[in-house]
Amino acid sequence: MEWNYQGDRGPDNWKTICSAFYQAETESLQSPIALDDNQTNLTSSQHSLRFDYNRTLFESSFFNHTVHLSPKTNEKVNFVTFNHKKYFLEDLHFHLPSEHEINQESFPLEFHLVHRSVKNDLLVVGVTVLPSERPMNTVLAVIDEKALHPRIAERGLTVPIELKRLLPEKKQFYHYTGSLTTPPTSGPVEWIVFRHQTYMRQGLLQAFKRNVGKTNRPLQPRSGRPIYLSDC
To answer: Alpha-carbonic anhydrase domain: from which residue to which, for each copy (predicted)?
Structure first.
């Protein structure tokens, strides 16, 4: 079903487009949400999180209104272990501006690393991004600006990425249970959102704005669910 980020098929009306979208939005707690240090249920290290990431070739595509990068290899070499359960990386994509709000602040961009367990459970890692003329800790700079154009991304360009360098230097993270942020916005999805930001060079960020545009779902109600703040 066709949906959009503006107009009569925008986020406020997603659940009216079809019964599957309605069911997904009404039967699960929704994402994104506002994350705030002062509203977390617990600040501790009780949630164990480990990243096993390797340098990997990704292939570009353009769908659901944004650029996606998928691992070219079928081998499950990139995974997250959260609370002793493995989730394997299957997709990297981008939202502008950020979907999550952190301590009352929005950011120019947020990217999502989508993982799936062998039992088909989902875990998404969210990383918010700040612009910098001299990015300190990002490999997003390897993405050629031309690759962000929808028609070029659709050609399946190959991009090498050192995945560990995508993550912020400070690994403190929020954890909560929510949903996907694009239709059907089904859940449950385990969300890991880093409290601190990584960096993207200004030129690449501008290219995202020109070629991708606004692709963020508005904040959803917290609905009383617990939110945790932990150290990696």
So the answer is: 1-231
